[in-house]
Amino acid sequence: MGEQAIVGPTSHFYVSQRLKMHYVDWGNEGKPLLVIVHGTLDHARSFDWVAKALRDDYHVVAPDLRGHGDSAWAVGGDYSMIGYVTDLEQLLAQINAFPAVLLGHSLGAGIVLQYAGVYPQHVVKVVAVEGLGPTPRRGEHAQRPTHERIQQWITHNHELAARNPRRYKTLDEAVKRTLEQHTRFSPEQAKHITAHGLARNEDGTYSWKYDNYVRAARMAYPYHEDDTSVVWSRITAPTLLVNGEQSFAVRGEDERTKAFPNARSVTIPDASHWVHHDQLAVFLKVVRDFLGVREGS
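Request: output the structure for the sequence above.
Response:
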């Protein structure tokens, strides 16, 4: 990762389900639209290196998901997949530059895959980075009685309500925490991602911008693999599934990829869940090849 400074994007807002939502725009509106969607507990500026590399070929836009970054926290803690997809649909409808290329990481990859299946006519290509996650467990969790799963979800929400956001005395203290959690990050990466992920408190300390209630998403009900596969089967756009060789997700043959009509999988060596941070140059080459653009074009 080089030390070249990143020229920042402009900041914009829109409204979705009465929530004030934030996104950044890297300009170049005359080019095809590329929307980059981050994952859980992350924010739009985490993808600055990728956006900067692709901004000459695309009109790059990166939203903050509800409850993340500079977007509003959802009243009542609605951080369901359908809520996230609704926000993305509202953003794309506002920009109105179809068809778009969608690129998402982790939760963001799940969101763009859902959107591409619901609105296949609006998407020209999809890049899903670590978007399938671990193989769903059909056993213990799915077999537990519904009332027990709802009780667990309510209990977890009560625990979150009692949890105070962690406060850091300095930015450097928060950067140190980021490096402890993400040992592959360079100091440059950690400082940039941390700085954009923090809010300054009235007493001068720093806390993460994300809403702790995003941690409770999907706890009450099991993963509906069959429903998701039906949505994926509707994706008409060429789809690239990118994985990190050293990620927590299952590698090798994954039966779920058969649901995609037109997809190919790429596993990047020496990369964890954060593929675009761990192996930026390799990741960009794979993405550029898929999109059909050359470096410096």
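The chain is about 35% helix and 20% strand.
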